[in-house]
Specification:
By secondary structure, the chain is mostly helical. The protein folds into two domains: 120 residues, Four Helix Bundle (Hemerythrin (Met), subunit A), CATH 1.20.120; 53 residues. Helices cover 75% and strands 0% of the residues. The protein is globular and about 60 Å long.
Length: 174
């Protein structure tokens, strides 16, 4: 049953990802991106990572997608045909992904988690008891500095977007 759910979520993620790139209307692309974010959250639920699913919906489907839509509305982009003539490049980039998918489907890459001796873990050992606690401990101890650097980079990008948008909207009065 879990394989059926995984197949559904993975298929919808692939289909909506292709539609994000293939659709000419940026609002429709953003809606397909929203559907993709919800299906990624569904994949997290099947992996018993409910906290990551909630973060996926709140951060990506809530904040990041709204930011994309604000940029689309701010720039007043209706259609842009120059990005849809790159099918040869997209095909070239997709060849390694296709090879990887074929390797995974043939069973050559997935054995599951093992303990230190190479034996497969039991089912209760593979799933952490409290993934929110584990994420918090890693994020605020081991990865604290990269977390702070990422927040500063996002702050600088947001300030730069505001300055560029204000300059474009206000115009030059000199």
């Amino acid at each position: 049953m879990s394989l059926l759910f995984f197949g559904y979520f993975a298929g919808m993620i692939v289909a909506t990802s292709v539609l994000v790139v293939a659709l000419r209307n940026p609002v429709y692309s953003a809606l397909c991106l929203l559907i993709m974010f919800f299906h990624v959250a569904g994949l997290f639920v099947t992996l018993h990572a409910e906290f990551l699913a909630a973060v996926q919906i709140i951060v990506y489907a809530g904040a990041i997608l709204v930011l994309y839509l604000f940029v689309v509305m701010l720039l007043n982009v209706k259609q842009d045909d120059r990005y849809h003539s790159q099918w040869r490049i997209a095909g070239f980039v997709c060849i390694p992904l296709l090879i990887e998918a074929l390797m995974l489907l043939s069973g050559g890459a997935g054995r599951g988690p093992t303990d230190g001796r190479g034996f497969p873990m039991q089912a209760q050992e593979a799933i952490p008891t409290n993934n929110t606690l584990a994420i918090g401990e890693k994020l605020y101890s081991t990865y604290l500095f990269p977390f702070e650097v990422a927040s500063l980079v996002l702050l600088v990008a947001m300030i730069g977007a505001i300055v560029l948008a204000k300059r474009d909207i206000g115009g030059d009065e000199t």
